[in-house]
Amino acid sequence: MAEAHQARVHAVVEDMVQSLERDHIRVMQGRMFRCSADCCDRSTDSMSVVHNCIERCHTPMAKAQAQVTSELEKFQDRLSRCTMHCNDKAKDLFDSGAKEPAVRALMDRCVGSCVDDHVNLIPSMTRRIKDNLDSIE
């Protein structure tokens, strides 16, 4: 993917992740740590009971991280498939005898279209992740 297109996708995804981290993940982390601290304050409980308590505290955070990772992987896979289609189109054009500047122009337009399409998916993906994070408790 051309550097400018790659930088654009990276910036948009980074903004989304920062927003999720600030507005949702940090809250969940705070809850997890407070819960874990409460487990440790149980001086009469056995080590295994405290350990199980801490594990229960960490479960929502693990689910949240898995959810975000899964969504980002799906997004990356879709974008990769789109750019692979662009590579195929460029190769076909080159094999038909087109000159390199024409192939580069096609590739840039095609990848630009992939990026536009996928950047436009970010708001719905963000809503889906936020809804899923809100449902984890």
Outline the secondary-structure elements.
Elements: H1 3-40, H2 47-95, H3 100-119, H4 122-135
Helix pairs in contact: 1-2, 1-3, 1-4, 2-3, 2-4
Structure overview:
The protein has one domain (1-136). Helix content is 88%, strand content 0%. It has helices spanning 3-40, 47-95, 100-119, 122-135. It starts with a helix and ends with a helix.
Please name the defining characteristics of this protein:
single chain, 137 residues, mainly alpha
Question: Average pLDDT across residues?
Answer: 94
Counted by DSSP, the helix tally is 4
The helix/strand order is HHHH
Distance separating the two termini: 39 Å
What share of the residues does DSSP label as strand, in percent? under 5%
Evaluate the radius of gyration.
22 Å
The percentage helix is over 70%
Structural class: mainly alpha
In this structure, how is the largest beta sheet organized? Answer: none
Globally, the shape reads elongated
pLDDT under 50 segments (min length 5)?
none
Strand count: 0
Number of domains: 1
Oligomer: single chain
Family: Belongs to the FAM136 family.
InterPro entries: DUF842_euk (IPR008560)
Organism: Dissostichus mawsoni (Antarctic cod)
Protein name: Protein FAM136A
Task: State the gist of this model.
By secondary structure, the protein is mainly α. The protein has four helices and no strands.
